[in-house]
Amino acid sequence: MKRMEEMILKEGKILPGGVLKVGSFLNQQVDIHFMKEIGDEVARLYKDSGATKILTIESSGIPIAISAGFAMGLPVVYAKKNKSSNVSGDVYSTPVKSFTHGNTNNVVVTKEYLSADDKILIVDDFLAHGSALTGLIDIVNQAGAEVVGCVAAIEKGFQMGGDRLRAEGYRIESLAIVDEMTDDGITFREQ
Amino acid sequence: MKRMEEMILKEGKILPGGVLKVGSFLNQQVDIHFMKEIGDEVARLYKDSGATKILTIESSGIPIAISAGFAMGLPVVYAKKNKSSNVSGDVYSTPVKSFTHGNTNNVVVTKEYLSADDKILIVDDFLAHGSALTGLIDIVNQAGAEVVGCVAAIEKGFQMGGDRLRAEGYRIESLAIVDEMTDDGITFREQ
């Protein structure tokens, strides 16, 4: 998605530790017109997938999932990073390590919101080492449902999570893939 | 909003400790068609407010904020509950006590996403004791911006936060107000 690359070049900031900050349009602050374009692009990519539900993880995956949900007319489920008092009953649960935050969260989805009949499209804002997507795929598998594919708004190609999941046979679509990120600039993978 | 009351009666579950669980359509799982109705209703209520930006708090306020953002064509900013490594630079910060989770979070918004020229519409899923809205209002005040009003999808009237904020002069619109919640049923406030 050319527009995603343009927005990253225009608005993105490279922070120490390999962090790409896109808070001005993708998370923290959401450019709502661009977010609609993102949802439309997800819908275009997966229109023939037979997806019945979109799954994401709080918090920064939620705007993308909601926009894709609007574009596709599909319900959205978001995994929570900690079981709280309003997550009742039986849950699917999986540990997810966050490289950004340097911790591991137990990620949960209430069982009644995923069924074995579901065909799940997984979306998130970033795909780096692939831990969040791997965790969400694990939850879908626990439910006996099918993963039709995944979308990341931005993939950090040099952290290999996307290519590892592709090698495992999953359809992984990233709206932009950053293959190199230095003080001199950003190199995108040709798609 | 009659439809919100109907959805609460149809889908809501009362849990111990005064928790109203609406995970099947409002948070955890989002009924995307109903979420569009919510955004349209927020837009109807605040169409003449001059709002320039929508502010919410992660995570369960985000779907409502995004839907309202689509309906109003406004950017969405969401406050984060903990400063993380991708929230860089100067932030507005305020403590917010969660009665659901029983803890206090430092809620932050990066300063560059709120300016003194902004007219802010605050949205959230629940309004109970009013701590989240009070914290978000404090952040808007720190930025020197103006609060044009607040929307809660569901207000627990018996926990008084909404009426306290109304008495302070804020415009608080709740799509449904639960005045009583017992094993025998739910009583809504006439609006």
What tags apply to this protein structure?
homodimer; 191 residues; alpha/beta; Rossmann fold; six-stranded mixed beta sheet; two-stranded antiparallel ribbon; 5 helices
Explain what the structure shows:
- The structure is a homodimer of 191-residue chains.
- In chain A, 29% of the residues lie in helices and 36% in strands.
- Chain A has 191 residues and is of the alpha/beta class.
- Chain A has one domain: Rossmann fold, CATH 3.40.50.
- In chain A, strands 5-4-8-9-10-11 form a 6-stranded mixed beta sheet, with helices on both faces. In chain A, strands 1-2 form a two-stranded antiparallel sheet. A two-stranded antiparallel ribbon of chain A has the order 6-7.
- In chain A, helix 5 links the parallel strand 9 (146-156) and strand 10.
- Chain A is globular and about 50 Å long.
- Chain A starts with a helix and ends with a strand.
- The mean pLDDT of chain A is 94.
